[in-house]
Structures are given as structure tokens and as C-alpha cells.
Specification:
The protein has 127 residues and is of the alpha+beta class. The chain has a single domain, classed as Alpha-Beta Plaits, CATH 3.30.70. The protein is 26% helix and 32% strand. The protein has 3 helices and 6 strands; from the N terminus they run E-H-H-E-E-E-E-H-E. The strands form 2 sheets. It has a 4-stranded antiparallel sheet. Strands 3-4 form a two-stranded antiparallel ribbon. It is flat, with a radius of gyration of 17 Å. InterPro entries: Dimeric_a/b-barrel, YCII. Belongs to the YciI family. This is YciI family protein. Pfam families: YCII (PF03795).
């Protein structure tokens, strides 16, 4: 089953890290991806640019509204994602616990649902 691991941290705290600390964390992330790939758990993933580069798009009454910045102001910002293959939620949680930035923020683990032409549950609720 596929799980999306969303990595969050406080960008302001991360910006306080020295270049050496930042490089070390990124090297850990690269090694984490290599390990997840070797074990067959890594599908894809990527770090994201900071939230000041974000643009939010909404459509209301057939009109597109564009806002600079992220969807909402939060304590932690979305920093990147890992798409994982895991046998169940417990394995996905164990894999997410190995993602280095989890030490500085959090990793939200969410099952991925199959998008079908018909028969989807409203809101993605299964059962």
C-alpha cells in the first residue's frame, strides 16, 4: 500500500542552522532515501522550497483566485514529502520515523487512495 509522508518543520528554526548543520541534515536525507530505495520502500519524494515561494490557487464560482504564500499560517510548514510503499500503517510509521527532519518537526503519514472514475467514497472515506 502507498503512504504519503509529509515532512513539516518550523522554517524559522531551520534558517538558524549553520551551513554545516544544514548540509549534514541534507546528507542524512539523501542517505535516508538511498536506504528506503534499497529496501524497496521509496517511490518518490522531494524537498520543497520555502513557503515564501508558495502560491495558493482557489476556484470559487468558476473564478480562479491566486494568493501569494501558503494556504494557512501555521507553526510548522510543509518542507517536503516521501511517497512510501509499506505493507501497513505500522510499517509506514516505522519508515517515517527514520526521516531525519522528524527530529525538528513532524511527519504526517497518510494512506494514498486510488482515484477511480466511479465508486469513490465521498471525501475519500473508506468503508
Amino acid at each position: 500500500m502507498k503512504y504519503l509522508a509529509l515532512v513539516y518543520y518550523d522554517e524559522k528554526l531551520m534558517q538558524q542552522k549553520s551551513q554545516q548543520e544544514w548540509d549534514a541534515l541534507n546528507q542524512e536525507c539523501i542517505a535516508c532515501v538511498e536506504n528506503l530505495s534499497t529496501s524497496g520502500h521509496f517511490i518518490t519524494g522531494s524537498p520543497l522550497m520555502p513557503t515564501n515561494t508558495a502560491t495558493t490557487v482557489r476556484v470559487r464560482d468558476n473564478r480562479v483566485a491566486v494568493t501569494d504564500g501558503p494556504f494557512a499560517e501555521t507553526k510548522e510548514q510543509l518542507a517536503g514529502f516521501y511517497m512510501l510503499e509499506a505493507k501497513d500503517l505500522n510499517e509506514a510509521i516505522a519508515l517515517a520515523g527514520k526521516i531525519p527532519p522528524a527530529r525538528y518537526g513532524s511527519v504526517e503519514v497518510r494512506p494514498v487512495r486510488e482515484l477511480m472514475e466511479e465508486g469513490n467514497q465521498a471525501g475519500g472515506n473508506a468503508g
